[in-house]
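Changelog note: in this version the structure field was regenerated for every chain. One regenerated record is shown below for reference.
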Amino acid sequence: MVNSDRNTAFLFPGQGAQYPGMGLDLLDSQKAKDLFALAGDIMGQDMEALIWDSDRETLKRSDISQPAITLVNLAAAALLEERGIIPRLCAGFSLGEYAALVCAGVITAEDCFRLVKERGRAMQDAADRIKAETPGQGAAPRAVSQASGMAAVIGLAPDRVEALIAEWKIEGLYGANFNSPKQTVISGAAAALEEAADRFKEAGARRVLPLAVAGPFHSPLMAGAAAAFAPVLEAAVFKDPVIPCYSNVSGGLLGSGAEAKALALRHITEPVRWTAEEAAIAGYGGIDAVLETGPGKALQGFWRDAGSGIPCYAAGTKEEIEKCYKSLLCTEDI
């Protein structure tokens, strides 16, 4: 028997969740095949081959990972919907917000792929410029990394991390992703990350870990990427959401397509307020389950750390989606 009364929230992962071969098992779905074909046309390459053949270092590039992750996110959502699991609301972590905008009817899948293609290119170009302009890139790595980028501060509350950044006033250091009560990601220049790693450990952080990303994202250091992306974004059509959809920049609900477009530009240089989004989703009311709709398991960990009693399930592979179907919609084995 099928129970259609279960309300779910789709949470779409962002950059860093990628891995070779991700999402290829979803190609049993015709809608997923159509999405792969659409993305391939816009990217000008075979996306199935790209995801299968690329190593982790290649997939880390923003101009590769952003279209690829978005494609897998949307393919996972398509298979869920084919199985009768329709989201009551949605949100996306960092890059994942673009899949959420499609899910909420704000942008079309076609426009989404065009946007993330150009967004990924602009962000990779900016990261490459920053790296080229940073002295000492060839030196031996220290506590975090000689390269400008991002690092996760583990074991300090987000408000404590934000307060310390404001107190220290280290040039080129920014709070980037407020992920959970136990993890905050910092972004910045190489020297700033090195100095901050030592200081955060002295302040009580258990670890400071470099992240597999191409640059210092969600910080003012990406202003060049925002400027390059702005005309592409301006040309896209953003409609009002048809289901509730949350913003990384504000941490709250998007009120209109115009607001979504304005925040999409700020999204490149401003932090991800994920803890605020999680609290808003948990407090929305009537949500029976949260699904990490795409590759990886990071969002499940963040949700667990937030302490909500609403369960969060993996939904990034065909096997995981079938488990979700049986858990959420079926009252007996099928």
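Spot check on this record: The chain has two domains: 8-129+220-328, 137-210. The beta strands are 8-12, 87-92, 149-154, 173-180, 183-188, 207-210, 289-292, 312-314.
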